[in-house]
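Quiz preparation item.
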C-alpha cells in the first residue's frame, strides 16, 4: 500500500514536471504559433499586400510591427499594440489599441475617396463598409505619430494626427485629436473634439475644430476651388473656431474666423490689411448672417481707397449685399451700398463723396507747388465689365468758396510756353479765390481719365481782381494723380473689440 502511494506521488510529480516543460516550450513558442495564426488570418482575409510581424505576446497585450496593407502600401504602421487583459477578453472587448509611426495614403478624385489597391477589396460584398457602428468592441484607439497623406485634384496635403478615440459603448464614438495640416512649406495646427452616435440607421453627432492664429498663404487656395476665380493670392494671420453637426440631413457647420492683416490679390486689384471676425455657414455653398464687419487698410481695384469699414452679407448664390461701405480719404468720406455679383460679367456701384478737403487732396497730387483750401462733395459711378473698371458720369463740386494756390515753377513755365492761354491760367491760379469749382470724371480707372474742370472766381493780383470763369479739359492716369497717403492705420474700435473677444474665448477654452 505504501509502495503504491509512493509510485502514485512519483507519477504525479513526473506529470507536473512534463506539464511544466510543455508549458515552458509552449510559452517560448507562443510568438511562432501566434505569427502562424496571424498569417493564416491575413491569408483568409485576402487583403492585398497585407503583411505584419508579431513581435511579442504577453499576458495582457500583443505587439505587432511592420504592418502594411495594400500593394503600394496604402497603410503602414511601425507598431500596433493591442491591450487585451483577460477580464476584457472574457467580456468580448479589447481594452485599447495603440497605432504608432503610421501613414495612410488617400486620393481624392471628383468627390470620391480612393484607397488605391484596397478599393476592389473594400468593394466586395463581404468587406463593403456600411454606415453601421464598429463591429469590433474597442474601448480606446490611440494614435501616435499618425499621418494621412492626401493627393488628388486639389493637390498634395499631409495631415498629422495624435490623440485618442473613445468607444464607451457600441455605436458611440468620442474623439480628442491634435491635428497639423502641412502643405508645401506651410502648416496649420488645430485641435478637434467630436462625438457621434449611431441611431435610426445613421450617424448623428457634433464637434468643434479650433485653429489658433496661423499664417495663411496662397499654398492653401487650391483646397477652396470655389475661390479659384475670385482670389488669386492671399497672405496674413487668421484663426478659426469651426462648430459642426451631423444628422440625417447631412453635415452643417458654422465657422467663426478672426482675420488680422490679411492681404488679397484678385482679378480686379489688391486688397490689403483686412481685419475683423466673420461667421461663415457651410458646407458649400457658403453664406454668412447679415452684419459681417471688416476693416480694410487699403483697396485698389482701379480706384485707390483707404481706411475702409464694410458691413455685408454673403448669400448662398454668391451675391454680396454691401449694407454699408465707408472709406476715409483726404479728410473726407466715401460711401457705397448695393448688391454685387462676383461671378457676373458686369457690376455697378456709386461712391457718394462727402467732405474731401482740397488741402489734403492736393497733398496727394503729384504737382509741385499746388495747395488749396475748401471742401468737395459729389458722386462717382463705377462700372465693372470683366476686369475693366470705369468711371462714367462722375462729378465733384465745392460745397462753398475756397482757394487754390499754384506757385510758379520752371516746370510749369516750360509746359505753358510764353504768351499762351495756359500761361495766363497759371497766372490766375497763383492765388485763386474760387466761388465755384466742379470736376467731371470719365474713363478707365487703370488708363486715362478725362477730367473736365470748371472754375469761377478771382485773383486779387490779376487784372484788379476781376471775376474770371474758365474750363480745363485734362487727361491723367488716376494712379499718377493719387498716391497712398496713409502712413498710420488704426483699427476701428468695433473691429478691435470683436478680435479681442474671439482671442479671449480661444484662450479660455481647454
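Solution:
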Amino acid at each position: 500500500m505504501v509502495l503504491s502511494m509512493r509510485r502514485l506521488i512519483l507519477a504525479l510529480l513526473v506529470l507536473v514536471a512534463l506539464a511544466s516543460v510543455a508549458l515552458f516550450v509552449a510559452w517560448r513558442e507562443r510568438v511562432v504559433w501566434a505569427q502562424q495564426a496571424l498569417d493564416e488570418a491575413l491569408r483568409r482575409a485576402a487583403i492585398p499586400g497585407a503583411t505584419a510581424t508579431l513581435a511579442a505576446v504577453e499576458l495582457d497585450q500583443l505587439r505587432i510591427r511592420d504592418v502594411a496593407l495594400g500593394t503600394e502600401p496604402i497603410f503602414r504602421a511601425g507598431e500596433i499594440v493591442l491591450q487585451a487583459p483577460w477580464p476584457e477578453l472574457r467580456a468580448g472587448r479589447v481594452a485599447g489599441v495603440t497605432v504608432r509611426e503610421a501613414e495612410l495614403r488617400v486620393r481624392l478624385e471628383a468627390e470620391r475617396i480612393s484607397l488605391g489597391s484596397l478599393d476592389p477589396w473594400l468593394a466586395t460584398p463581404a468587406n463593403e463598409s456600411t454606415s453601421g457602428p464598429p463591429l469590433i468592441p474597442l474601448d480606446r484607439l490611440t494614435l501616435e505619430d499618425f499621418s494621412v497623406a492626401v493627393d488628388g485634384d486639389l493637390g498634395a496635403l499631409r495631415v498629422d494626427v495624435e490623440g485618442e478615440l473613445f468607444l464607451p459603448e457600441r455605436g458611440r464614438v468620442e474623439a480628442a485629436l491634435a491635428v497639423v495640416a502641412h502643405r508645401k512649406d506651410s502648416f496649420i495646427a488645430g485641435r478637434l473634439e467630436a462625438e457621434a452616435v449611431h441611431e435610426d440607421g445613421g450617424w448623428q453627432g457634433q464637434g468643434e475644430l479650433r485653429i489658433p492664429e496661423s499664417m495663411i498663404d496662397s499654398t492653401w487656395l487650391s483646397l477652396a476651388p470655389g475661390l479659384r476665380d475670385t482670389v488669386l493670392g492671399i497672405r496674413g494671420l487668421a484663426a478659426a473656431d469651426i462648430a459642426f453637426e451631423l444628422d440625417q440631413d447631412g453635415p452643417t457647420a458654422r465657422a467663426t474666423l478672426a482675420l488680422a492683416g490679411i492681404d488679397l490679390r484678385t482679378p480686379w486689384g489688391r486688397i490689403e490689411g483686412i481685419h475683423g471676425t466673420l461667421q461663415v455657414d457651410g458646407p458649400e455653398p457658403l453664406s454668412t448672417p447679415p452684419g459681417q464687419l471688416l476693416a480694410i487698410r487699403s483697396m485698389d481695384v482701379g480706384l485707390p481707397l483707404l481706411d475702409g469699414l464694410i458691413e455685408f452679407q454673403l448669400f448662398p448664390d454668391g451675391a454680396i449685399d454691401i449694407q454699408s461701405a465707408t472709406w476715409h480719404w483726404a479728410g473726407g468720406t466715401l460711401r457705397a451700398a448695393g448688391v454685387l455679383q462676383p461671378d457676373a460679367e458686369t457690376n455697378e456701384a456709386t461712391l457718394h463723396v462727402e467732405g474731401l478737403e482740397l488741402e489734403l487732396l492736393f497733398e496727394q497730387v503729384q504737382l509741385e507747388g499746388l495747395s488749396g483750401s475748401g471742401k468737395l462733395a459729389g458722386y462717382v459711378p463705377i462700372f465693372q465689365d470683366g476686369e475693366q473698371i470705369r468711371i462714367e458720369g462722375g462729378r465733384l463740386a465745392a460745397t462753398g468758396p475756397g482757394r487754390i494756390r499754384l506757385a510758379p515753377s520752371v516746370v510749369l513755365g516750360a509746359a505753358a510756353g510764353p504768351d499762351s492761354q495756359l500761361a495766363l491760367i497759371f497766372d490766375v491760379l497763383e492765388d485763386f479765390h474760387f466761388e465755384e469749382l466742379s470736376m467731371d470724371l470719365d474713363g478707365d480707372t487703370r488708363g486715362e481719365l478725362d477730367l473736365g474742370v470748371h472754375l469761377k472766381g478771382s485773383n486779387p493780383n490779376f487784372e484788379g481782381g476781376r471775376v474770371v470763369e474758365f474750363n480745363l479739359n485734362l487727361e491723367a492716369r488716376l494712379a499718377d494723380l493719387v498716391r497712398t497717403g496713409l502712413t498710420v492705420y488704426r483699427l476701428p474700435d468695433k473691429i478691435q473689440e470683436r478680435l479681442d473677444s474671439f482671442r479671449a474665448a480661444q484662450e479660455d477654452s481647454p
